[in-house]
Design goal:
Distance between the termini: 84 Å
CATH superfamily of the largest domain: Tetratricopeptide repeat domain
Number of domains: 4
Largest sheet: 8 strands, parallel
Strand order of the largest sheet: 3-2-1-4-5-6-7-14
Structural class: alpha/beta
Oligomer: single chain
Number of strands: 14
């Protein structure tokens, strides 16, 4: 609040007319002298003395109000300056400072009116123009606010307050670089301007320049160590810099100074969530909401942590409260939609995402998330248009889709790389201070750590278990770093026995896990989850190991800190290396491990038990429904139309898709009952046994069957695939090559359709394929677990030797070991 200078009212400027008024005037001049020298403690009692004698003394009322405002007592300032204005409504400074006080007590509409009155009295009053800008910002009118600041700066180009306000308006208008320049100009004119230093730190955080933001907050704290806003900002910067323990200390310090700081409590909750202390995070958000029940950010963040705790209904209620406060809160809409999806309320989730995109068309990852929801439900309305839009957004560098879901709509390895790079840079940038600092370990055995969210009942666990068990313990010390749920399943127990060290780290932060791995002196860290569900690439971003590998994750990570990707020459052709941030390591047969001990239930259900007709050809596609496309479905329906009595057997992956697919079938002239849906069964071995009832597996494109191809081939079911143009579009082809059935790989969709029809109508040829598949299963590399283990160990040894010789990562090929061994 500005002092406003000596009052200019006529009665104060006139000579005293009586002895009493002369005495009052003298005392006022004495107080005013103290005030102008900055001795408010000397001026204040004199103003009060004058008001006891002359309650309507304009100068004493006004300047005492200024002192109260500067002391943090805004309510008293409003009362006193308001009284002064009633005595003399013609003082522009009084109206301007009255607006300042009203802003502090959260009355921006009244403040704006007060600034307008000041400007009516003095149109070129820069202080009032600046205050008017502040009020307009509070009223969410940033364009008008910017214009008001510009008018003030035209009058006073070095007005630091207006430059600071201008920066705030520019930030609200999504012009952060210009905002930063405005804050910098303010600081040129007033280097010790605390608010500008703090705002500069905040805009640097917005620009993902956390280190520079931290420096700005530290400058502010060097001037005023107890500046709570800067302490809070410092904590946010430290969290962005992956220094959560220091961030927590910063927010705790802010709360010690200001226990009712809602921002500090909210930020503290965010840090506790990062530190894997979710219950404490909820308590911190609850404390913030007890102070400000309508705090939308706190309600939104509380929903996030409740969701992470699996308390979905409570999370949904928290998002609902946030949206009641701010109906157009895009983040809360996004999260509520995601919670509804998790609760299998698919239609409501899709409505939320459509509402969100109507409000904010380029909200981070929303368009891709909505499209994935729709295709998972096989809702193909405007499919081509929506796919083209998400692809266009990715090419434009927008945060349009997650790498894992983008795989299902993209047939371009270049676009998939772009999507992964965007997501990784946004969520898992390389740490500025890596945990491993270049040390070279000398161990008797290579310390090999596998990181996964899926050491549980999950397709990758069933495929990899045998490889883990076969590792040569004379050469490798194996470590499991598990950050997924413990489902207490049989496969979980088996995996615990497969490793020398099985470490459950799900309740630890990324930084804590990375430091732990560094303390273990891990030589090679192998990421098995990547961008898939529950992945934690933030651990690898901290560089806990000298060699870091992308294995069993479909496609590139988009991260420069992953040194290698394990693959084969089918999934990544030589000319595709440019689409991978990692160096390419070729295994001889296939990149996908398989466990030769996987069980298939002895009991095969009857066709009737499976809901299949007693007679007729059974086409099968047990892929997840998000892999289905209108184009592939067209082919499948044409096949049903040409193969009399045939059915298409699909997996019931969600409750919504079957109705949509039956409707799509009818629209293509196929009776709905020719689509049969297999419900999920608890045990994988029972699911694989059902494949025996099918005649031919029809693969999908652009995202082919991955572990599902191995399941079908293991059960003896031939798989037809079409070779795609990306990693995930070529996996089934890789597996068919590895089991010696390359003739089931087609190179165009017309060829795919023709081959499916040929096999469905020529039983002898199909029977021959089945016979060969049964024979090859025991004689070809696909299911030779130990052969695969030797190949990948050879790859690890080459990686480790390159590191030991201080050679940078480079692409290479592993030479094949001897042919198939029987177990």
């Amino acid at each position: 609040m500005s002092q406003g200078g000596p009052p200019r009212s006529p009665q104060e400027q006139a000579k005293p007319q009586t002895q009493d008024s002369a005495a009052v005037h003298a005392r006022f001049q004495q107080a005013l002298a103290f005030h102008q020298r900055g001795q408010q403690d000397q001026a204040e009692p004199i103003y009060r003395e004058i008001l006891a004698h002359t309650p309507d003394h304009f100068g004493a009322l006004y300047l005492l109000g200024i002192i109260e405002g500067q002391s943090g007592n805004a309510a008293a300032a409003v009362e006193l300056i308001g009284q002064a204005i009633r005595v003399n409504p013609y003082d522009a400074s009084a109206h301007s400072n009255f607006g300042n006080a009203l802003l502090v007590v959260k009355h921006p509409e009244e403040a704006l009116a007060s600034y307008e009155r000041a400007l009516a009295l003095m149109p070129d009053f820069a202080d009032a123009l600046n205050g008017r800008g502040n009020a307009l910002l509070d009223l969410k009118r940033p364009e008008e606010a910017l214009a008001s600041y510009e008018r003030a700066l035209a009058l006073m180009p070095d007005f630091a307050g207006a430059l600071n306000g201008r920066g705030n308006a520019l930030l609200d208008l999504k012009r952060p670089e210009e905002a930063l320049a405005s804050y910098d100009r303010a600081l040129e004119h007033q280097p010790d301007y605390l608010e500008a230093l703090n705002n500069r730190g905040n805009v640097l955080l917005h620009l993902d320049r956390a280190q520079a933001a931290l420096a700005s907050f530290d400058l502010a704290l060097g001037l005023q160590p107890d500046y709570v806003d800067a302490i809070n900002g410092r904590g946010k910067a430290l969290l962005d810099l992956k220094r959560p323990e220091e961030a927590l200390a910063s927010h705790d310090r802010a709360l010690k100074l200001q226990p009712d700081s809602v921002e500090a409590l909210n930020n503290r909750g965010n840090v506790l969530l990062e530190l894997k202390r979710p219950e404490e995070a909820v308590a911190s958000y609850d404390a913030a909401l007890a102070i400000r029940p309508d705090f939308a950010d706190g309600l939104h963040n509380r929903g996030i942590v409740l969701w992470n705790l699996g308390r979905l209904e409570e999370a949904l209620a928290s998002y609902d409260r946030a949206l009641a406060v701010e109906p157009d809160n895009a983040n809360a809409l996004y999260r509520r939609g995601a919670a509804l999806w998790q609760l299998k309320r698919h239609g409501e989730a899709i409505v939320d995402f459509k509402t969100l995109l109507a409000i904010k068309p380029f909200h981070d990852y929303a368009a891709g998330r909505l499209l994935n929801m729709q295709i998972t439900c096989c809702d193909w309305a405007d499919y081509d248009k929506n796919v083209a839009q998400v692809v266009e957004d990715v090419r434009a560098g927008r945060r349009a889709d997650f790498p894992a879901t983008f795989l299902a709509i993209s047939d371009s390895a270049a676009d998939q790389l772009k999507c992964s790079r965007i997501f990784t840079a946004d969520n898992y940038p390389a740490a500025s201070q890596p945990v491993w600092r270049g040390e070279r370990y000398r161990h008797d055995r290579i310390r090999l750590a596998y990181l996964s969210a899926d050491f549980r009942e999950h397709p990758s666990a069933f495929l990899l278990a045998g490889m883990f068990e076969h590792h040569d313990r004379s050469r490798f010390e194996t470590i499991a770093v598990s950050f997924g749920d413990d489902d207490r399943s049989e496969i979980r127990t088996r995996l615990k026995g497969a490793f020398e060290h099985f470490i459950d780290v799900r309740d630890r932060s990324d930084l804590d896990i990375a430091r732990f791995m560094r303390d273990l002196e891990v030589d090679i860290a192998v990421d098995l989850t990547g961008h898939m569900r529950d992945g934690r690439m933030g651990i690898l971003a901290l560089r806990p190991a000298p060699v870091q590998v992308n294995f069993f994750c479909p496609g590139t990570s988009g991260a420069d800190y992953l040194d290698y990707i394990v693959c084969d020459r089918v999934v990544i052709p030589e000319d595709h290396h440019v689409h991978y941030t990692e160096k390419v390591v070729y295994l001889p047969d296939t990149f996908q491990a398989n466990d030769s001990k996987r069980r298939i239930a002895e009991y095969t259900p009857s066709r009737a038990e499976a809901g299949l007709p007693d007679e007729g050809f059974v086409f099968c596609s047990f892929n997840n429904s998000y892999k289905f496309t209108p184009g592939m479905f067209d082919i499948w329906m044409r096949l049903l139309g040409r193969v009399e009595g045939s059915v298409l057997w699909l997996q019931e992956s969600n409750a919504t898709a079957p109705a949509n697919l039956r409707r799509e079938a009818i629209q293509r002239g196929i009776e709905a009952n020719r689509l049969v849906f297999a419900p999920k069964v608890p045990l994988l071995e029972d699911h694989i046994a059902r494949y025996r009832l099918a005649d031919l597996f029809l693969d999908t494109l652009p995202y082919t069957a991955q572990s599902t191809t191995s399941d079908a081939l293991w059960a003896g079911l031939p798989v037809i695939t079409c070779l795609g143009t990306t990693f995930v579009g070529r996996v089934a082809a890789s597996l068919l090559n590895a089991i010696g059935l390359p003739e089931l790989i087609t190179h165009s969709l017309p060829e795919y359709e023709a081959l499916a029809l040929e096999l469905a109508t020529h039983p002898a040829r199909l029977a021959d394929l089945r016979t060969r598949l049964a024979r090859n299963r025991a004689t070809y590399p696909l299911f030779d677990t130990d052969r695969f283990r030797r190949h990948i160990e050879s790859a690890y040894i080459t990686m480790w030797e390159r590191h030991q010789h201080e050679a940078p990562p480079a692409s290479f090929s592993v030479q094949p070991v001897r042919q198939m061994t029987s177990e």
